[in-house]
Amino acid sequence: PADSPDAAQAGARSAPAPVTDVAKLCVCDLLVAQCDVNCCCDPDCSAEDFSLFTTCSVPVVTGDSQLCSQKAAVYSLDVEANPPERIFKLIDQVNPSIFCIHATNYKQAMYLKSPEIPTPENFDRLLDKFGGATFSAEPDSWNLDTDAQNPPDANETYRYEYGVPVQTEDAFLRLPSPVVSSWCSDANPAGFLVNQATKCIRSVSVEKCDSIQALSMLFYINSSILAVPKSSQMVNITVQSIVVQSLNGMRTLLNSSDVLRLPMVLDGLCINAVLGVNYHITHTDTGEIIEAAAAFVLGAISKEALSIEQSFEISFTQENTQPVLLSGNPGYVVGLPVRAGFRPQGYPFPAGFLSNKHGQLTILQSTATQDCLAAQGARAPVLFGYNMISGCKLRITAAMKCQPLAQTLLDVLKGQSFPEYVASFGNSQAQDVLDWVPITQLHISEQMISNTLQSSCQIPVSLGIEVKWTKYGSLVNPQARIVNVTATITTTTLKQLPSGRERIIPITSSVVFTDISSPAEPGYKAWPTINIKLPFDFFYPFV
């Protein structure tokens, strides 16, 4: 039956077994039944032959370079062994390109198929198939049910992973979005941990608005979410809030969200029509969904309207944590905090453990007392586009030890955990490795002249942060993107004071933003170009 739990897995696909076994592939094997010199993958070579090799002419053997993930055979020589021997490893290789093939399970894509030319005989059929706002390119021969090929293990524990569609009891959680044109397509699944915001156009008819599913609240909350994939545990979608929008755009928050408001025709208007939905999903650190809520914006549609614009958004929050606020979408907004973080050991991307609880780049915050030792721990966020300077005063006595004092001042300037990376965009996600810019740290030493000689030490006296950014994207609507961050620590040589003497040294911290955008050429009105080479059939079947 269509409403069975097994049917919810119909849309899930698993990557097929690789077509090419890279362990048996050898591109440098040219001689038949003979060992090729320095060909470490040649099956005709023996251990004695490998001991005479000086290098591996082909160190890495892969299959299709367009695959997003594939096996790679890595060959090397252990020259320290006696005699030298070959080392073979089979690793998983990830393609960094944004244009890659996830799975080669579409047999028709293995060869070039000429598109069908319209004729008087087939024109109506092609129009029915491709003439709508959206159409499916999936052939009927695709086997979407992979349970028969990959029987589930009874002892296997399932969980959601990043990007996996959020499953419901009948299919998946829908997040309507524009596909080919600006018209809404309800076939877009919401990916786990993928925050999205979409807008699209929906064709409406006021006389039939009560029968259009996409205008009803039930369409977005009537299917329960699976807590984990392939499970029978359900999580109901609750209504968090309802906002009613009038024809002139005024919005009113309803006091009660318990009453389900369905679209209906009243005085020539379609009222309670869904104009926007905002999903909020709460999950555990093990990838289990424990709560789902939806906030609705309902409005009225006049009889003259032939279409409406709907907006949809989904966000994910881990339980017992606070959501990280964005500083732009995508480019930074002036006055919002610069987002920063660091990469813990063993993590492939900058993680959520950041410089403070909000994940922001911070500097020393000035206090009323101007005492550096009392100001330790007081931080101010670095706001994009704002040049800032702050500081404090350090009173040095002869009883102070050099090394503890230097470490204390470094903590005052940099904080307890100075970040290693800065987000290049205001909405950069932790999983997007290329969207994080490493912070370059420099040290400059200055000499302090003193006639009192006993012993000396180096102490930090200032931290200067320079943020270089550029205008990115369209000339009509450029987005602010950070391309380089440099943090410079300046130290000075401090001579030890005689007993009973004191000295006051200023400690400063500053941030400077520098726009390095190339100025537009006078009279230049052409569209900006993106230097990306697309596959030859990327836009197929479109010309």
Automatic annotation (TrEMBL):
Residue ranges constituting the Tectonic-1-3 domain according to the UniProt record: 159-318, 328-515
Keyword Glycoprotein: yes
Record bears the keyword Plastid: no
One of the GO BP terms on file: cilium assembly
InterPro entries from the UniProt entry: TCTN1-3, TCTN1-3_dom, TCTN1-3_N
A Gene Ontology term for the protein's cellular component: MKS complex
Similarity annotation: Belongs to the tectonic family.
PANTHER family on file: TECTONIC FAMILY MEMBER, TECTONIC-1
This protein's name: TECT1 protein
Species the sequence originates in: Struthidea cinerea
